[in-house]
Design a protein that fits this description.
about 800 residues, 25 helices
């Protein structure tokens, strides 16, 4: 069977190449994504500064228990945005455990040394509170003095010595470190040394019992998991981006492969009919088609996986260059991911071939040649019912999306997009038939005899044109909706930030400013308002799953004079330690309103119940939540203000002179920074979305070239019947105009509905923003793609000798 399948492929290189191209492109994309996901999942953090510890007690994440819709309990773990803390007093309790040799407190503060921001730690090796020990890479000489900035305050220390550590850092006395800590009485970790002769494993349970349920105990090779590091954040990013995007690509690849293989099989009706007529059983014909697809799949794997590994290296380089992951982050070879992609590629091809071959191979031998003569205009009853069910689901989803708000509306919009495209794919034969009837008169009026033939062809080939219609709708639907979501997000964020920032200037410094600076600025003559501003993140539970939510931390005293959040309900004057202001998007997602009790966990995992006092509309520009400084005091790593917003024309030079690197910037500079940061982070989204749209466009081109090249006998017969070459070319152009018009109408409608739903959920606007050239590129690109991939192949066929084409297979 394999030998026969190989011979069949050699005799039909066109359809085999088209299928191979679709499978190979899918394998390349999935392999690259697989390498990213595998690298993230297999990342094992090194012990770093905990290399000398046997056991570490820390709280880098939090586990939240919730219940499903059916009442079943589920547990979800999420990394804490600022890293959790454990009580310092736990160290003394651990020292009393039998078998514990020592227990030390490990804490961290950001320290600015000579323009470099490094970590500061406590160490018993530092002799005095006015001394520090520095990493050798900082270039400090023992005995010298150095000015550093901690918590926004400039401090001077004597360099007592230099060491070589896992990363550049400075070390203070434990007492000085406790005084500098942003969370008095708590620390990031407790490190434990086990007494000689005591197995570390025997102490895990007693330590866990003392630490309580809010702390994790790590031992042996796992102690590195207690560290907060850029590498751990990179691993989470790779798993999240590669996993979520890979899931969409898998669906897209299966969709595209099914259409390509199905069209290839339908173009072989006469060949398969002859096999049935000479006594080939349906099972033998199906196995033959599946063997061909399997061979093509194996060849696609051989080509696609090496290219995918190269693509993964390129993506890794780009991620490093743009600051998404550290250069030292280890990337795995991707053997497991490549094996999974190989299996998925071959199985997808074989299953697509099986589904496509089922109807053709079910007919009786006596009917086989008749079936091959003219393709049925409509699909089967099961396909029609399935299409109507999916269409009903898409309509229901769209109604839910229009009624919903928040993240539920976002999820509903993406689901609606896939459901509508799937419905079009299933109902394409009936859509094509209806469009042919509607377009018959206009085409005949515009193109005369060629238009009449075009309408007749569209009607007769309604089922054969289903794959072309689906591919075009898929391209326009994706390109016209998902791609522009990022544009709307960036535009909305920058516009809200610019419109809501009413301050004239901002006082900023590289290591931040102490919270007292805002009060100093307020007392200056000519200052009408001043607000200290910093940022953090909290953990909320949405639809049963914990997720981080961005938050800005402000000094409520001068808030009304420096920013306009466009309050829709409530009053920002009530913002205090036990209250919170919430964006309308977050409020809709959580079901909060003014007066609600909002259950959140601060950046270090501390649970808080805050009363909602205001709901504002400019959440994209200013964060999901607005918290008072007193709310996060002692629960955030940043004890400083990132900026002090100032409204007024006072002279700030005396203040800037006291803080290293401090300067006065125009308020618009903060908005520009927001736009720049968002553009950098949006690059990854655009890359992933661009790959999806590009693959959809490739699939459309692939399918249309296949459909065009399969018409050689049809065009030759028309020429023999007296149709001129010019009339045939006009007929094909008229067909494409009809098919393209239908696809564009459906694709634009789906894209517009999806984009409007997403933008409404994000910004509240019913009119999405599309860049001036956006629709021109989408619609023009789809038009050029459709015409080029049809007109050019057809032109080549029309120039070939008639007898050469009439003797070719279908």
């Amino acid at each position: 069977m394999r030998r026969l399948a190989w011979q069949m492929l050699r005799n039909r290189p066109g359809s085999a190449i088209a299928t191979l191209l679709a499978l190979t492109a899918g394998a390349v994309i999935l392999t690259a994504m697989g390498v990213l996901v595998e690298s993230g999942l297999r990342y094992a953090p090194p012990p770093g500064r905990y290399a000398g510890a046997d056991i570490v007690v820390a709280r880098p994440d939090v586990t939240i228990t919730s219940r499903d819709f059916d009442g079943e309990e589920q547990r979800s773990t999420i990394a804490l945005p600022e890293g959790g803390t454990v009580p310092v007093e736990l160290a003394s309790k651990l020292r009393e455990l039998p078998g514990v040799a020592s227990a030390a407190v490990d804490d961290t503060v950001p320290v600015l040394v000579g323009g470099a921001l490094v970590e500061g730690h406590g160490s018993p090796a530092v002799p005095a509170d006015d001394a520090l020990v520095a990493d050798a890479r900082l270039g400090l000489a023992p005995g010298s003095t150095v000015d550093v900035v901690v918590g926004g305050e400039p401090l001077r220390f004597r360099v007592d010595g230099v060491v070589s550590g896992a990363a550049p850092a400075v070390y203070f006395t434990e007492a000085r470190m406790a005084a500098l800590s942003s969370h008095p009485g708590r620390a990031y970790a407790i490190t434990v040394k086990v007494a000689p002769g005591t197995p570390a494993k025997s102490l895990i349970d007693p330590i866990a019992e003392l630490a309580g349920p809010d702390a994790n105990v790590y031992a042996g090779a796992d102690v590195g998991r207690a560290l907060r590091s850029d590498n751990r954040a990179a691993a989470e990013l790779l798993v999240l981006a590669g996993g979520s995007f890979g899931g969409y690509v898998v669906m897209l690849v299966v969709f595209v492969v099914a259409g390509t293989v199905g069209l290839s099989v339908r173009h072989r009706r006469r060949e398969l009919a002859l096999l049935r007529a000479i006594a080939a059983t349906p099972g033998q014909a199906r196995r033959l088609i599946m063997a061909e697809a399997g061979l093509v799949g194996l060849l696609a794997v051989a080509l696609g996986i090496p290219l995918g590994l190269l693509a993964a290296r390129w993506v890794h380089g780009e991620l490093v260059g743009r600051g998404f992951i550290p250069a030292a982050f280890p990337m795995v070879p991707g053997a497991i991911g490549a094996a999974a992609v190989a299996l998925l590629t071959v199985v997808s091809a074989v299953l697509a071939a099986l589904v496509a071959a089922r109807r053709i191979t079910r007919v009786r031998p006596a009917e086989a040649l008749g079936e091959a003569a003219v393709e049925p205009a409509r699909g089967g009853r099961v396909r029609l019912i399935s299409g109507l069910v999916v269409l009903a689901g898409a309509a229901t989803s769209s109604a839910f999306t229009v009624a919903a708000t928040g993240t539920a509306a976002l999820a509903g919009a993406i689901g609606m997009l896939y459901l509508f495209v799937t419905a079009v794919a299933l109902l394409a034969p009936w859509i094509n038939g209806y469009a042919a009837r509607v377009l018959a008169r206009p085409l005949r009026a515009l193109c005369g005899t060629s238009g009449y033939l075009a309408a007749a062809n569209l009607r007769a080939n309604a089922r054969g044109g289903a794959a072309v219609l689906t591919a075009l709708v898929l391209s326009v639907g994706f390109g016209g909706s998902v791609w522009f979501v990022q544009n709307n997000l960036e535009r909305g964020t920058v516009d809200q930030s610019r419109a809501g920032l009413t301050a004239d200037r901002a006082l900023i410094a590289p290591a931040g400013l102490p919270p007292t600076v805002a009060d100093e600025v307020r007392r200056l003559p000519g200052v009408r308002a001043a607000t200290g501003l910093s940022h953090t993140a909290v953990v909320v539970t949405a639809m049963g799953e914990p997720e981080p939510a961005s938050a800005q931390v402000v000094d409520p005293a001068g808030l009304a004079g420096t920013m306009d959040l466009r309050v829709a309900d409530g009053n920002l004057d009530q913002l205090a330690a036990d209250t919170v202001a919430v964006s309308s998007l977050r409020a809709a997602t959580q079901g909060w309103h003014v007066g609600s009790r909002a259950e959140v966990r601060l950046g270090d995992g501390t649970p808080r119940t805050l009363t909602v006092v205001a709901i504002y509309d400019r959440g994209l520009g200013f964060g999901d939540l607005t918290l008072a400084r007193a709310t996060v005091a002692g629960h955030t790593a940043a004890t400083t203000d990132e900026a002090v917003l100032v409204r007024g024309d006072a002279d700030l030079s005396a203040i800037t002179a006291r803080y290293p690197g401090a300067r006065v910037a125009a308020a618009g500079e903060l908005t520009a920074k927001v736009g720049h940061d968002l553009a950098v982070s949006a690059w990854l989204n655009r890359l992933l979305i661009g790959v999806m749209v590009g693959y959809a466009a490739l699939a459309a081109a692939n399918v249309m070239v296949m459909a065009a090249l399969s018409r050689r006998r049809e065009l030759a017969l028309l020429r023999l019947a007296g149709v001129t070459r010019r009339q045939a070319a006009r007929m094909v152009r008229a067909e494409q105009v009809g098919l393209l018009g239908t696809a564009l109408l459906l694709g634009v409608a789906i894209a517009a509905l999806t984009l409007t739903a997403v933008v409404r959920a994000l910004t509240g606007s019913l009119l999405p923003y599309v860049p001036p050239l956006g629709w021109v590129l989408v619609l023009g690109g789809a038009t050029v793609l459709a015409l080029a991939t049809t007109i050019l192949p057809i032109g080549r066929l029309l120039r070939a000798p008639l007898m050469e084409n009439i003797g070719q297979r279908e």
